[in-house]
Amino acid sequence: AWVNRDVLKRAVAVQQRRLFGCLDLHVRCMFFLMFALSAYLHEDITNVYMIESGLRTEFSVGLDELESVADVWHWVNTSFLPKMFKQTDSEGELLADKLHWSKVLMYNQLQGPVVLKQARSKMERCEDPSPAIGPSSSVGIAGHMMCYLQSSTSTDPFGKPIQVSVAEPVDNEYAGGDVTVEERLAYYSSAFEAGSRSDGRRLRIMRPQYIHRLPSGAADDDSFLVFLYPNTNYSLIQEHVNYLYDRAWLDLQSKELTVRALLLNTEVGRPRLEEVFIQFAFSRGGGVFTRITLESLFLRTWHNMTSVAADLMYLLCVIIFTGIELYKAWKSFRRVSVRKESTFKKILAVLIVVCGWLIVLGLLVQETMRQTVVTRLREVTHAQMQDVPADSNTLGAELMDDTAIATKYNGWFRLLLAEYHLVLLVFFFTAFEAQPRLGIVIHTLESSFIDILHFLLVLAPTFVAFAISGCFIFGRRIEEFSTFEGAVGMCFKLMMEGEFDWAVLSEEHWFTSVLWTWTFVILMVLLMLNMVLGIILDV
Question: In the beta sheet, which residues pair with residue 146?
Fold first, then answer.
């Protein structure tokens, strides 16, 4: 029997698409794996966690008990300084070589100064923002009080006008030179003038949704800075801090204090600088909120040849895929017969190419920043080896500045790496349709997409209503519900897990708590989520 020519051509075309589709599936899988391996080896997450978890635990001790300026001073003197500026060995004997001083948890050595940066508010007579009504309107409700607005910034010199005794510098305190009493007093008192020594630029944890409500920092020119160097004898560091305390460096006008330090670790994986950033926000509602941030900056690009090979393979995949997409675009421009693709797949292909090259470019920029930091670090290391006096040392500021820029860039670049994994995952799924059994997954999602979208139009306002009502009912006493963002996150957690702490929710207004909790469980957990399964199974 003769077979129709057109039917035969269609059958051959279908088989050809399946063949190339199956081959394309393997190529896309290889693309995803090479990128994932390259990113994982660059970020070295496991070793980063090993270092940062220990440092975070070490510096977090006592932070949950801070309630006032006096508590902050106590934490600095009794917890932070002894850990950061340790100058004795495991047996308590003073280390003779200053290059062995200031090691945190034995293996993380301080590089450059510890910088304390304070932002201050203006002290002004309180103004009543309410309408002027009645005989006392000229004064206002709080017109007799002094206020410290957290939105204002003060750059005025301050400090108690008292004479604080400073010990006479002794000979050979520093191998790099001697200092006078006048130089030391100038070094100490510089902390009371804004930007005089610029660095170039509960746990009451500060939750992200509270950051914009708490006192914010200021630029270096508007800040008051203190520099504590690792080659300084611990008794002199204590004298410096006591000088600041006696002259009230922190007071009612202080709105934010940040502590920054750079620790060098060469023991775990690649050599890296660990930036320690501790922030204290003095809330005008009372209390002290704290936040610890740690960021690793690797000082070497690759750990071994496996990382180099993974980078080269990823670059090869980007080049190949870019060539394929350019060839398709050229054929489409020349109106050559080519299989039509959906708009979504075209956009996805462009996104893969653009983000792929952005990551390659980002790695080059990252390498440039790394070399800048390495150069600064060598300058600081040389100064520490020369034992330059802290009173006249101006190095370390550029290292702090360049490291801060690099770590901020790395944070955004890490986010790009994480999101690109998800884009590649979708790119990998779109190749399933070439294989009949794998294509069932894609066809099911495509068929149920419209129904799920309409379902979300019902789910979203219902969910938001529960989040807002939960904020009103529980927000005054439960931190997780105290902001709308936190209430949304908590409601999502309750919806996914179906679990809640009934003892906490029902501490006040028992009947209202019962009504909110059970309606949420019935509507959101039992009804809404099962409707999603019903929509998918109906397809």
Answer: 125
Give the pair of three-digit tokens for residue 235. 């008794």
| DSSP characters over 233-257 | -HHHHHHHHHHHHHTTSS-TTEEEE
CA dist 502 → 355, 464, 498, 506 (Å)? 46, 21, 12, 6
pLDDT (0 to 100) of residue 328:
80
First to last CA, the chain: 39
Q: Long-range contact list for 362-370, CB < 8 A, 24+ apart?
A: 362/413, 362/416, 363/42, 363/311, 365/409, 366/406, 366/409, 366/410, 366/413, 367/301, 369/402, 369/405, 369/406, 369/409, 370/297, 370/298, 370/299, 370/301, 370/406
Q: Residue 153: how many CB atoms within 10 A of its CB?
A: 19
Distance CA 508, CA 531 (A): 33
Nearest Cα to 258, choosing from 303, 199, 209? 199
Backbone φ and ψ of 521, nearest 5°: -65, -45
- Looking at the predicted structure, is the pLDDT value of residue 132 above 70? no
pLDDT of residue 199: 42
The span from the CA of 226 to the CA of 234, in Å, is 16
The pLDDT, as a whole number, for residue 23 is 67
Instruction: Give the closest residue to 175 by CA, choosing from 410, 458, 389, 7.
Output: 389
In DSSP notation, 345-402 reads: HHHHHHHHHHHHHHHHHHHHHHHHHHHHHHHHHHHHHHHHHHT--TTT--TTHHHHHH
Q: What is the C-alpha to C-alpha distance for residues 159 and 115, in angstroms, rounded to an integer?
A: 19
185, 79 in Cβ contact below 8 A? Answer: no
Nearest to 117 by CA among 312, 278, 302: 278
Model confidence pLDDT, tens digit, residues 240-258: 999 999 999 999 999 999 9
Question: What residues have CB less than 8 Å from 333, skipping those under 6 apart?
Answer: none
Pairing state between β 103-104 and 224-228: unpaired
Do 275 and 51 meet the contact criterion of CB atoms below 8 Å apart?
A: no
Going by pLDDT thresholds of 50, 70 and 90, the confidence category of residue 425 is confident
User: What is the CA angle 100-105-109, rounded to 5?
Assistant: 40
